Amino acid sequence: METTAWFAARQELPPNRRKLLAIGSFVLPILIWCLVSYVPFLWHPMVRISDPGAVDYFQADMLVDKAVFKAELETMQAQGGALPVGGLSNPIYLPPPHKVAEAFYTGFTTPPASKDGLWLHQSLWQSIQVIFWGFLLSSLVAVPLGVLAGTYSAVSRLFEPFIEFFRYLPAPAFGALAVAVLGIYEGPKIAIIFIGTFFQQVLIISNTTRKLDYALLEAALTLGTSRLKLLRHVVIPGILPDLYRDQRILLGWAWTYLIVAELIGTSSGITWFITQQARYEHFENVYAAILMIGIIGLGTDLVLAKLGKRLFPWDKPANKQ
Amino acid sequence: MDNTTHDYLTQSDAVKARFDKLKQREVILEVKGLNKVYKSAQGETTALSNVSFKTHRREFVCVIGPSGCGKSTLIRILAGLESYSGGQVLLDGKPVTGPGRDRGMVFQGYTLFPWLTVRKNVMFGLEMNGMSGEEARREADLWLELVGLERFASAYPHQLSGGMKQRVAIARALVNQPRILLMDEPFGALDAQTRCKMQAHLLDIWRNVDVTILFITHDLDEAILLADRILVLKANPGEVQELIEVPVPRPRSVDQLFTPEFIATKARLEALIHPPTAVASDEAETVKPHMIRFTNVADNVE
């Protein structure tokens, strides 16, 4: 029984196992990363020079290919010069976990390089604002339009064919256009988030609206509800929990457009930080920044999920243990 | 024991007197020559053909018929949820043009609003028709008491059992004080025991409320137990076969299931709905003994 219980199709696991697996899903990738970083015989294709010896182009702390190092070592042995010394290492783009963890902390404590530069938390805040405004503006139009399209066939037939077409156009393709229209600062970035989310949002929400049991509308009609009141008193409250779930998924979607959006016009926000750090090969900082995006995204989603349970006590899927 | 010879048309004096009194009452719903034709790519299908009947105030009418006889179509037309191709539907002499609060409806699938508490569900119709919240709440609580669910007023529908949900649905329809309560196989999804309780419950409600009930079912016992008159439809196209006056005296209970009147009425319904010739000719429906068996020859269950 014990072994089958772990793999019973469509059966929920007991809470302690669920928790264990949830922790495991994070621990496992970190563990692999640790193994590759700290166990010298796993991968490690480079050699970090600690003493260049007589090789003229070697320098201390320089990374060279294992093969190059071996060739130079043999040459020196043959010529009888001072031998170069070095330890196995991973390429520069794979820093070990402790370096990234360190960078995660020092990122916030290091003042900006230039006087008018931004602290890391200021860059992050810029990014969050871009997401917030892009998603808010998109939702303000897409949610009502989606609900109307899902309720009234006329609205759906008028808008959805064009939206179906438009959603295949990649949002970054409008970058140059957005700069021409909206300038180089926040405007075009918000526009890209908007374009990236809006069209999907209308279609997803209209679909959700259509899934509302039509019998509920019929029941309301037989209770004397006028056709105008149906929308406010039956359709909207009926789809609200699903609409909320859609919005959570779509917010994640908006985040995925962030980096492209922030490269448009003047680079800003967390993207500016990432490109800047990558330019100086501070890859631990790059990883730290990417992790921050993930943490902010997952964090907001967890908070929103908790909030959803509070807001919709009648919603079964959300409250199911 | 002359059960078999008892005629379903024979009425005792008390039953006869009751029917005479019933027919004196004003007509609530009148259906005249109702037709319904569905048009599709394959051509036209007649769902209802020339259906006519009347119901009197506080009468309990059951509609029964084989599947495909259009009984659901009929009740949906009466509720105003579907259009009709010909004929007339009159409520208090006025033609029905669409859904309205004068005709309450209880669906088989409960259709309670999941986002509203039980009390708010019952208040829904009142509030949609402009009653203030406080007044609607008082009204709703009275009706919840009538269906015996006052303790569950603040529960959500998903916390209730099927029978309880259907009682809320009945209260929700009745709070509007409709002229007629239309019930579309309301107990069809319930288990036998709950259904039995719900039938007794419904009769009790009907006794205490000034409402006419039109009840669709495919369960013969249920129809006889509940109805004053049973409208029997036949399939393809849906036509009225007979309007039977149930000779079983009131008050009704399950103890009457084996009285001669009950058995005679049921025999008549059986004959109308499953005519003996039709069963014999329908080879697919009869179970024939098989030549092949998948069990050991000695391993018999009968």
Tell me the major beta sheet of chain B: 6 strands, mixed
Distinct helical segment count of chain A: 14
The stretches of 5 or more residues of chain A where confidence is low (pLDDT under 50) are none
H/E series of chain B: HEEEHEEEHHHEHEHEEHH
Could you name the CATH homologous superfamily of the largest domain in chain A? MetI-like
Query: From the 3D coordinates, which CATH architecture of the largest domain in chain A would you assign?
Result: Orthogonal Bundle
Given helix and strand content, the structural type of chain B is: alpha/beta
Which CATH architecture of the largest domain in chain B? 3-Layer(aba) Sandwich
What is the 3D shape of chain B? globular
Order of strands across the widest beta sheet of chain B?
A: 6-7-8-3-9-10
Defining traits:
heterodimer; A: 321 residues; mainly alpha; MetI-like fold; 3 domains; three-stranded antiparallel β-sheet; 14 helices; 3 strands; 69% helix; 4% strand; B: 302 residues; alpha/beta; Rossmann fold; six-stranded mixed β-sheet; four-stranded antiparallel β-sheet; 9 helices; 10 strands; 34% helix; globular
Strands, helices and their partners?
The complex is a heterodimer of chains A (321) and B (302).
Chain A: H1 2-6, H2 15-38, E1 46-51, E2 63-65, H3 66-79, E3 85-89, H4 97-109, H5 120-151, H6 153-166, H7 175-182, H8 186-210, H9 214-222, H10 227-256, H11 258-262, H12 269-279, H13 283-311, H14 316-319
Helix pairs in contact in A: 4-13, 5-6, 5-8, 5-10, 5-12, 6-8, 7-8, 8-10, 9-10, 10-13, 12-13
Chain B: H1 13-24, E1 27-40, E2 43-56, E3 60-64, H2 71-79, E4 86-91, E5 94-95, E6 103-106, H3 118-128, H4 133-146, H5 162-174, E7 180-184, H6 192-208, E8 212-216, H7 220-226, E9 229-234, E10 239-245, H8 260-273, H9 276-281
Parallel strand pairs in B: 3-8, 3-9, 6-7, 7-8
Antiparallel strand pairs in B: 1-2, 1-4, 4-5, 9-10
